[in-house]
Amino acid sequence: MSFSHSKVLAITNHKGGCGKTTTTINLAAEFGRLGLKVLVIDMDPQANASLHIGMTHPSRVDFTCAELLLGDISSLPHAIHEQTHLEGVSLIYGSLGLGKTEDELKDVTPRPSEELRSKLEAADSVYDIILIDCPPSLKLLTSNAMAAATHIIVPVESGSQYGLYGADDLLKHIDKIRRINPKVALLGALLLKHDERQTVCKLLESTAMKTFGQILPVKISTSTKVNQAAVMQQSLHSLDRSSKVAREFRELAASLMETLKLKAETEDAQ
Ligand SMILES: Nc1ncnc2c1ncn2[C@@H]1O[C@H](COP(=O)(O)OP(=O)(O)O)[C@@H](O)[C@H]1O
Ligand SMILES: [Mg+2]
Fold this sequence. Notes:
The protein is α/β, with parallel strands linked by helices. The chain has a single domain (7-259), classed as Rossmann fold (3-Layer(aba) Sandwich). The protein is built from 12 helices and 7 strands. Strand 6 (151-157), helix 8 (167-177) and strand 7 (185-192) form a beta-alpha-beta unit. It is globular and about 50 Å long. Bound molecules: adenosine-5'-diphosphate and magnesium ion. Adenosine-5'-diphosphate is lined by residues 16-22, 48, 136, 192-193, 220, 222-223, 226-227, 230, 245.
């Protein structure tokens, strides 16, 4: 199965703390604000994305991504929660149970990496864009996200000298996934906590370019507002639309809309 309408973006890097969840949430907020129908899938047992935009605590949600992965083909409607803190954005919750699901998957299905893709089939005509927030590992949950994806973005912590540690393993994993999802496109690395005045960031940028072949044109700078927005369960745009990071995420979303040939319903530049 491949998607004919929805763009499915896996936000992935097995390195923790590089900005996967921040990217997922703020891109989702932007796409929603522009009138697209957006679905966020939280594949991380830590459920940070769900804690950020969910109306319910993930531990109290009965039907999460864990149940979806192990459920039958008709499970999707039970897993989708249309109400979130972001307008136009629906959510499939993550949960601690995803860890156990990951262990169980290979025993219950002959194609353990393709369960998410097969369950998402029905979403193709409904959502313009589906964003998958991945866990910090290259195991089955991430494989499921990559196998379902039409496109992959790799957030990289620019200000860290270890920001590209493990990048080769990630690229090898994407190559392996191409056997079951040949059309998946790597859009490139997204640099976060980037400060072009710092030598470490400049060095990392040039190595990331060589490693991934492409760097997304908009880089995200460091800001304490990122953490503040998560605590307040808001997007950066709604926390402080005039801040530099909010502007950067708006620009990133606009650039991705062009790359992915998505059309905004409302053109609200503010
Ligand atoms: N641009 C940024 N500026 C400052 N802090 C950031 C930025 N991006 C992410 N963070 C912080 O870094 C931590 C890790 O980010 P997160 O998005 O949760 O990464 P991941 O999902 O890859 O583990 C969080 O505490 C987040 O608030
Ligand atoms: Mg995360």
